[in-house]
Amino acid sequence: MPVFPSRPSKSFLRTGAALLLGVAAVFAAHAQKRYDTGATDTTIKIGHIVPYSGPVSAYGTIGKTASAWFAKINAEGGINGRKVEFISLDDAYTPSKTVEQARKLVEQDEVLVLFGPLGTAHNMAIRRYMNAKKVPQLFVATGATRFGDPKDFPWTMGWQPTYQTEGLIYAEHILKTKPDAKIAILMQNDDFGKDFLKGFMDGLGDKAKRMVVAQSTYEVTDPTIDSQMVNLKASGADTFFSITTPKFAAQAIRKAADIGWKPTQYLSSVSVSVSAVIKPAGYENAQGVISATYLRDPADERWKNTKEFDDYKAFMAKYYPGGDMTDSLNVLGYSSAQTLEYVLRKAGDNLTRENIMKISANLQLTLPMLYPGIDVKTAADDFYPIERMQLLRFTGTHYEPFGPVMGR
């Protein structure tokens, strides 16, 4: 007598159906898109704050370059199919205005991320607010050391080398090349200046009291620094450290020449721009000025005919034709925007603020216009993406690198 297979029990069918539904749910969960405010299937909203007006309006070109970069990305199809809405606002380099603009971007424009806000005091003014709101204050445009504190401020991250790191590099170079130097310091009287000064003095160590013979400060609202320069020259200093933003850096170089003071000059890298600083100061007055960089100098002939420079040149010509291709501030905007693009692409369909910070805290990235040997690295306990620099000396009409890449 033939034996027929028995019919499956109802309980067996129910169990199988449940298993299939469970598997389907797992796949659906993996495929599900996750968004926070500021992201949708079609757009990603990015906020940005920079001084387009005021005493350091030269930095406004950073915002124009970043905006141009995302215009390029949008023209090429966006990021994972989403167009970037880049909202860049002016704060005139006034911390109270920075607070106002940050609140507007977060509460009214509802951006996913606040990218690259510029200035030390300005980022300090909004740091607690951004962390309370749990909105990334990402790749801030300041080298202040305090913007790498993942324990207390996990939503805030720097990008460029810290001012203390740079100050240490200059101090190390002076100790090595001119150990009996008599140093005069001109410093912007704010957190930017103080952070730079700390790194420099720490680098000089117990020799600082003997070597630093004069210090003077200026306010960002001052019309000139002429009187400070006269007083610094009178100290008998043969070495000058200029912790200044572009307008005052240019004034200091020109005034030193006008009064016949010829010290060895060290200039903070925030003012390394040839077009914004050296040209108005006078090429003949800037010969021998020492600074540092982590970016390729777009005015340096050594980079011409390289793919990295050709790509940058083509981008500027098409998307920011009014910008100065030789201005290093444009390379800064170009490179920091590429860092953000990388993070957003890597986030895929998980465009939550938490995931964006997680990716940002796990970077190992080489960017085309970073100086060779310098890259972007972060970790959960390391919110300092770039920590190495190359010393430069101004010669003729451009800076020339010398010595090894320095830093961590």
Structure commentary:
With 408 residues, the protein is α/β, with parallel strands linked by helices. It has 2 domains: 43-160 and 302-387, Rossmann fold (3-Layer(aba) Sandwich), CATH 3.40.50; 163-293, Response regulator (Rossmann fold). The protein has 13 helices and 15 strands. Strands 3-2-4-5 form a 4-stranded parallel β-sheet, sandwiched between helices. Strands 7-6-8-9 form a 4-stranded parallel β-sheet, with helices on both faces. α5 (163-177) packs parallel to α6 (191-204). The chain is globular. Residues 1-6 and 23-30 have low confidence and may be disordered.
Provide a short characterization of the protein structure.
The chain is an alpha/beta fold.
Distance between the termini: 84 Å
Question: How many strand elements?
Answer: 15
The Rg value, from CA coordinates, equals: 26 Å
Largest sheet: 4 strands, parallel
The side-by-side strand order for the widest beta sheet comes to 3-2-4-5
Helix-strand makeup class = alpha/beta
What is the domain total for the residues? 2
Percentage of residues in DSSP E strands: 15-25%
Instruction: State the CATH class of the largest domain.
Output: Alpha Beta
Provide the CATH topology of the largest domain.
Rossmann fold
Topology summary:
Layout: H1 10-31, E1 34-35, E2 43-50, H2 60-75, E3 83-90, H3 95-108, E4 113-115, H4 120-133, E5 137-138, H5 163-177, E6 183-188, H6 191-204, H7 208-211, E7 212-218, H8 226-234, E8 239-243, H9 246-258, E9 264-267, H10 274-281, E10 290-293, H11 307-319, H12 328-347, E11 350-351, H13 353-360, E12 364-365, E13 376-377, E14 388-395, E15 398-407
Parallel strand pairs: 1-11, 2-3, 2-4, 4-5, 6-7, 6-8, 8-9
Antiparallel strand pairs: 10-14, 12-13, 14-15
Helix pairs in contact: 2-12, 3-4, 5-6, 8-9, 9-10, 12-13
